[in-house]
Design brief:
Layout (H helix, E strand, L loop, with lengths): L56 E2 L8 E2 L29 E4 L4 E3 L2 E5 L5 E8 L2 E12 L10 E13 L6 E5 L6 E9 L5 E2 L6 E4 L16 E4 H7 L8 E4 L7 E3 L2 E9 L3 H9 L7 E3 L4 E5 H17 L6 H11 L4 E5 L2 H4 L3 E5 L5 E5 L1
Parallel strand pairs: 3-12, 13-21, 18-19
Antiparallel strand pairs: 1-2, 4-5, 5-9, 6-7, 7-8, 8-10, 10-11, 14-16, 15-16, 16-20, 17-21, 19-20
Helix pairs in contact: 3-4
């Protein structure tokens, strides 16, 4: 029988490694750790809501999806914030201008997290009553478009905090999408092309932004349409993904694919012979039609090269994203509503694979 007081090594929900010190919650997904007895905590005042309907968002030029305003900076004129790489004037932004910076945050279920070793560094701790306040710091750089802004770069130090009960440690921080993040800008300075600080230059206003968060499968409360064969054919008549499909994992669930979150499907043979074969094998799959109007198509091997180009493009706009998140951002930014991989035997054991981003892109065929 396992010892209930023993600290698990991995999160039972997402599989992330846990710190060696006792932890009550996973910093990756926020799930409580099984088998750890939690002390009775006093009621703490909730963090102020950014707004009743959710966190405020704005539309910036480097993403199709709205981007979340975080860090207690909602009083700035966010609609005019300029992301990295998109300032096209010869002079750098001044006190009347607003620039947007992106701290290294990762989306987790229901919010965001920042972690040591993934853009953040530990910056000490201090006791406050029965709790310990842990601080973290990240250096975030804003830069203009090439050959613009006098070649200057704005280097900001962003501080964040997280609290834990006495005797416990924190490797990072986490906050929900409807709340201001526990972050603030502690310093900022201009640097020239040689890295020399230019303290005499005035600073612009700085807007802390969350990286683009593209809604995918589980972010929508929807199900595939249920249609007969004729209706399904008419429904998908404009689709670039022709034929019938079945889920690669046999169930219609969100997966972490090579292109981010999605549902992978493989072609399914149709016709009398296909039916007879499935009956003999006693395997009858659910059949789906897919409506994908603008898929990105390439071979599985070519995607690895494409992913490097996507990462370079994201970094050129100040976005420090994991490969899967960068893929979601890039596909959304370019208007793709699905991905078709060819020559996919190495991973999927079939030649052609379709990945859709929403259940509403599918129609289940009634037999």
């Amino acid at each position: 029988m396992s010892d209930p007081s023993r600290q698990p090594r991995f999160c039972h929900q997402c599989g992330a490694a846990l710190p060696p010190a006792p932890a009550r919650f996973c910093i990756e997904c926020g799930a409580p750790i099984r088998g750890i007895a939690a002390p009775v905590e006093p009621e703490l005042p909730p963090a102020p809501l950014a707004r009743e309907a959710g966190a405020p968002t704005i539309k910036l030029a480097n993403a199709n999806v709205p981007q979340q305003v975080i860090g207690g900076t909602v009083k700035l004129p966010a609609s005019g914030a300029v992301p990295p790489g998109l300032w096209v004037l010869n002079t750098p932004p001044g006190p009347e201008d607003v620039v947007a910076i992106y701290p290294p945050l990762r989306p987790v279920r229901g919010g965001w997290s920042g972690l040591i070793g993934r853009g953040w560094q530990a910056a000490g701790s201090r006791a406050r009553g029965s709790q310990t306040i842990f601080r973290f710091q990240a250096e975030v750089t804003w830069f203009p478009a090439p050959d613009c802004g006098d070649g200057l770069r704005l280097v900001a130090q962003v501080s964040a905090s997280s609290r834990a009960w006495e005797g416990r440690a924190r490797r990072g921080f986490r906050f929900g999408v409807s709340r201001d993040g526990p972050m603030t800008i502690v310093s900022a300075v201009w640097q020239d092309a040689n890295g020399h600080e230019q303290h005499e230059l005035p600073l612009p206003q700085i807007q802390i932004m969350a990286p683009p968060r593209v809604p995918r499968v589980s972010d929508f409360d929807e199900s595939p349409a249920l249609l007969n064969a004729r209706e399904a054919n008419l429904w998908a008549r404009d689709s670039q993904a022709t034929g019938a499909y079945r889920p690669w994992r046999d169930q219609l669930v969100q997966e972490h694919t090579l292109v981010g979150r999605g549902i992978a499907l493989i072609p399914l043979s149709e016709g009398p012979r296909a039916w007879i074969g499935r009956i003999i094998e006693k395997v009858v799959y659910d059949r789906y039609r897919a409506k994908v109007l603008q898929p990105f198509t390439c071979s599985l091997a070519e995607w690895k090269k494409q992913l490097k180009l996507i990462g370079n493009e994201a970094r050129a706009l100040g976005l420090d994203l994991d490969p899967a998140l960068a893929a979601e951002w890039w596909l959304d930014r370019n208007g793709y509503d699905g991905v078709i991989f060819t020559k996919a035997h190495a991973r999927y054991k079939v030649d052609r694979v379709l990945i859709v981003f929403r259940r509403s892109q599918l129609a289940k065929i009634k037999d």
